[in-house]
Sequence to fold (103 residues):
Amino acid sequence: MTQLPLHYFLALAALLFATGAVGFLIRRNLLVMLMSIELMLNGVNLTLVAFNRIRPANHAGHIFTFFIIAIAAAEAAVGLALVLAFFRLRGSVRADEATLLKH
Fold:
């Protein structure tokens, strides 16, 4: 079985990261912004695992990937809880209305 070259994985990871960055910067919906952050983290994970293929004896890429996955899960849980609380308070999930949280 032939292996795919490293630059295929890096191109896909760059595409994932760029899509997440553009989605985060352009969209004002908090849920879309959270999903864009997840896309960026998955692009970083793919890069770490792809570079770990070069040195299979070193498992640092896999270990960092597991930490990033755990952090992303915690970020998603806390972020969704904050978005839900914001929606209950304002009735919208637009990031532009988050400045209206002052008393």
